[in-house]
Amino acid sequence: MATATPDMTTVLAGVPLSSPVLAAAGCAGTGPELARFTDMSEFGAVVTHSVTEFGSTGRPMPRLAETPAGLLNALGLPGAGMDHFLATELPWLLSRHVTPIVSIAADTVAEFGRLAGRLRQAPGVVAIEVNLSSPVHGPGVLPFASDASGSAAVIHAVRRNAGTAMPVFAKLSGDIADTVSVARACVDAGATGLSLINAVRGLDVDLARQSLTLGSHVGGLSGPAIAPIALRAVWEVRASLGDVPIIASGGIWDGASALRMIMGGATVVAVGTALLQDPRAGRRVLDELTELLTEKGKLPAELVGVAHA
User: What's the pTM value of the predicted model, to 2 decimals?
Assistant: First the structure.
């Protein structure tokens, strides 16, 4: 007898989603870029590019460089700022029946708090992802996620300004030595869950030009090359913090890599770099994940964290 196709609807921090496959921050652009190639509403949710208070033109060119099994980027969070996002980008997403999780990024605790306050009553926003771990900063500037107390201060400000009802996810780095300590500090400060992981810092040399490939020198490495690092972070946080909701990203390329993250402890997975190579990767990953779950006769939630048994 044929095995019934599982119900792929998922609940993330109390928010019902149509599937456990999300679009990771930044890789869906502001929406219209990816919408030319795929139905944006097919994602369980779309994590927006990281919105800043006043906008930025980004880092110097060149900003992208391919590496074996990955991609280096030093975009620098380009965008038009929160006013433009609320007036233009968010309404566009909602008009396409997209479930938006809004990523925010800032240089100070106070600025993070102001951004969260702007989203408190924003229509349709189901959660905030706090980008504590952007891998590209000015010289000598470390991301908030490198320090537990600094991360906690940001989350406390976001929670205070976003209100108690808004789910807040702290996006952490794969570069830090003790992900669990930072994750615990964020949860204690009011984070609903964690988003693991951001790109890992790296660089490359252009042999022909005899110089570093990126204009900012250091960039963020993403793609399949960092999948084991991301899975390690997910597994460790799940082992230490229990059932805290986790959005897993970093090297999710197909249904198998998505299922590994779920078995490691992720509630949902977010497809990122794969979308730059294949704009329809979100649909493909969901179809492949559904097929794997059908073979096992399991719902997504039934396999969350089973690798810890």
Answer: 0.95
